[in-house]
UniProtKB/TrEMBL annotation:
The keyword rRNA-binding does not apply. The chain crosses the membrane at residues 5-22, 28-44, 56-80, 86-102, 114-136, 156-172, 184-207, 227-248, 282-302, 335-354, 366-384, 390-406. The keyword Transmembrane applies. It comes from Erysipelothrix larvae. This is Uncharacterized protein.
């Protein structure tokens, strides 16, 4: 029975966008709700020990909750926006908690099965019926030159899902939770999904990962075979999106060509502008406009205020033309927008958790893990920093995996005397 609970948890983590009922949100709260039930049940059994690294997440979630109550009672916050934000904060506590609790119930074979399901849906959408799967999601959005979505609302979200799973797959391999054959299958499927999504951001993060992997193969493993395979894969990938019409005419192909020809021309794409503007809006608004206090949880204060003219003029030089246009809704930077300095400290803490073994550890002991987990973690952090719902259970799951690794390898990571 315990293994079944572990499987249910993994299903909710790796299928974050499907829902049996309409919830009004793209990223579903089911993994969070399940994790809350696990926490409550553990409390009733008097077996709810909390990893000390999660204490900060619990404290920040409580601060965010009090902030929402204060702004709501003052008439500056709305129920829907407030709850949506709070779910993100509480996800970073409850989901890592359950990940740690169920660490012995994870099986890499399930990861392979999940990938099979995702790629089957993607292939059906690509070759047979583009809207396949929409009935079990809140929405499915595509345009003419964009790729498939599989079981995600947008192609970009599918691309990010593929990148996240590649890193999780590396963790499973590092901890012997998946065999080499299944590891290769999951890796290949994720790359295929990223290609089918034709997501510019997905392709960008995959490229960073492949370059990082190439460097490790050269500097640490010194495997000529793997170096050649990695280089050929990168060349094939470049050729596909620059020369083959099926890929070059996709959104990712267009973005790649525009970047190579004239990077400033990317400003015509709203997605690019949003990703560049989110951090600026969050930091300027939460730290300067609100004097380090943030706009509050679910707050609508100054949400339609224009950026100061001097900043608009400065940004226009780089091709960024943005306005407040509402709240900063996604990414870790939303913490700064909502909580100001407290949010900034929280982001720094999460980053520290991600890189802690490299900072304090004996590098000779952990060098083989740099690419398979910690290099990938930095990619995930950078991706989640500027975009993506903080309700995304994959991010919280990865945070939990990192905490597991830190706890189980504490002695190995200490500096030698």
């Amino acid at each position: 029975m315990k293994k079944k609970y572990g499987l249910i948890f993994m299903i909710l983590i790796f299928f974050p966008y499907i829902t049996p009922i309409s919830t009004g949100v793209d990223t579903q709260p089911w993994a969070l709700i399940f994790s809350m039930i696990v926490f409550i049940y553990s409390m009733l059994e008097n077996n709810f020990g909390v990893n000390k690294q999660l204490v900060v997440s619990l404290l920040i979630a409580l601060i965010a909750t009090f902030s929402f109550v204060f702004y709501f009672l003052a008439g500056f916050s709305t129920i829907i926006e407030g709850i949506r934000s709070l779910l993100g904060y509480w996800s970073l506590f409850f989901i890592p908690y359950t990940t740690i609790k169920y660490k012995d119930r994870m099986d890499g074979k399930y990861l392979k099965i999940f990938c099979y399901i995702w790629v089957c849906v993607a292939l059906i959408q690509y070759f047979i019926y583009p809207d396949f799967g929409i009935s079990i999601m809140n929405r499915l959005w595509r345009s003419g030159n964009r790729g498939v979505t599989a079981l995600a609302p947008e192609p970009a979200w599918l691309g990010r899902w593929g990148v996240f799973v590649i890193i999780i797959n590396d963790y499973f391999k590092m901890n012997k939770l998946i065999n080499s054959k299944d590891y290769g299958i999951v890796f290949a499927i994720c790359i295929l999904l990223i290609f089918l999504s034709a997501s510019g951001m997905g392709i960008a993060w995959l490229s960073v990962y492949l370059v990082l992997r190439l460097l490790v193969e050269i500097l640490y493993k010194k495997s000529i075979k793997n170096v050649i395979i990695t280089i050929l894969s990168m060349l094939a990938f470049s050729f596909m999106f620059l020369q083959i019409p099926m890929f070059s005419n996709s959104r990712a192909g267009i973005l790649i060509r525009m970047f190579l020809e004239n990077p400033s021309s990317l400003k015509i794409f709203a997605g690019v502008t949003l990703r560049l503007g989110n951090p600026i809006r969050a930091f300027y608004g939460g730290l300067i406009v609100m004097r380090g206090l943030g706009f509050g949880i679910g707050s609508t204060i100054l949400s339609d205020t224009l950026l100061p003219q001097w900043l608009i003029d400065t940004l226009s030089i780089t091709g960024i033309d943005i306005y407040w246009g509402g709240r900063v809704r996604g990414g870790l930077v939303s913490f700064v927008y909502e909580l100001g300095i407290i949010g900034l400290v929280y982001i720094a803490y999460i980053l520290f958790i991600f890189i802690k073994p490299i900072v304090i550890g004996n590098k000779k002991k952990i060098k083989e893990h740099i690419i398979c987990f910690y290099g990938g973690l930095l990619i995930i952090f950078a991706s989640q920093f500027i975009e993506g719902s903080m309700m995304n259970p994959l991010f919280s799951f990865v945070l939990g995996l990192n905490m597991i690794y830190l706890k189980e390898n504490r002695k190995k990571l200490k500096k030698p005397v």
